[in-house]
Specification:
5 helices; alpha+beta; 158 residues
Length: 158
C-alpha cells in the first residue's frame, strides 16, 4: 500500500537579486519510493516541471548547505523570514528557488514520521527479491554440477 505525503506551496523563482516570480509547487513523498522526494513546479506551460532527488538531501539542507552537481540546498535568512534555497541545474538551464523554511521543514518531518530514516530498505522488499533471485531451482543442479567430472579416470582406469 502506497502512502503519500504532499504539500502545496508557493516558491519563488529568483530571476535576479532584485526580482523573483512566485511559482506554485507541490512537494511529494511516496512510500513506494522511500529514498526520494519529488517537486513539481506549475510554471504555466503545457506540462509541469518535475524534479526528483534524495530525501536525505532535503533533510540535511534544512539545517546546513549540502549537495553538489544538479541539486544543491541550503538554509538562509532574510530580514523577515527563514528560507530554504534550492539550486537546480539541468541541460535546459539553471534555477534558484526560495522556499519557506517552516513549511519545508514541517513537510520533511512528516515524511520522516511516515518512514523513519534507516527503514527505507524494508519497504522496497530487496531482501525477498534477492533471496528469490539467488535461490537455486531444480534445473540449476545441471549447471551447478561439474561437467568434466565424468572425463576423469576412475581408480584402476588409465
Amino acid at each position: 500500500m502506497q502512502n503519500a505525503v504532499e504539500r502545496e506551496l508557493e516558491v519563488k523563482l529568483v530571476l535576479s537579486p532584485e526580482r523573483s516570480v512566485a511559482v506554485p509547487a507541490r512537494l511529494s513523498y511516496f512510500t513506494d519510493d522511500p529514498y526520494a522526494v519529488h517537486i513539481t513546479f506549475h510554471i504555466g506551460s503545457e506540462a509541469p516541471v518535475h524534479w526528483t532527488f534524495a530525501r536525505e538531501l532535503l533533510v540535511e539542507g534544512v539545517f546546513r548547505p549540502c549537495g553538489h552537481g544538479d541539486v544543491r540546498i541550503w538554509p538562509t535568512r532574510t530580514e523577515d523570514q527563514a528560507l530554504i534555497c534550492v539550486a537546480l541545474t539541468s541541460p535546459d538551464g539553471n534555477a534558484l528557488l526560495e522556499m519557506p523554511s517552516g513549511a519545508v521543514a514541517a513537510w520533511t518531518e512528516r515524511t520522516l514520521r511516515v518512514v523513519p530514516p534507516g527503514t527505507e530498505g524494508a519497504l522496497l522488499g530487496l531482501d525477498g527479491a534477492l533471496s528469490e533471485l539467488l535461490t537455486p531451482l531444480p534445473a540449476d543442479d545441471l549447471w551447478l554440477s561439474d561437467p568434466w567430472a565424468q572425463d576423469e579416470p576412475q581408480d584402476g582406469e588409465s
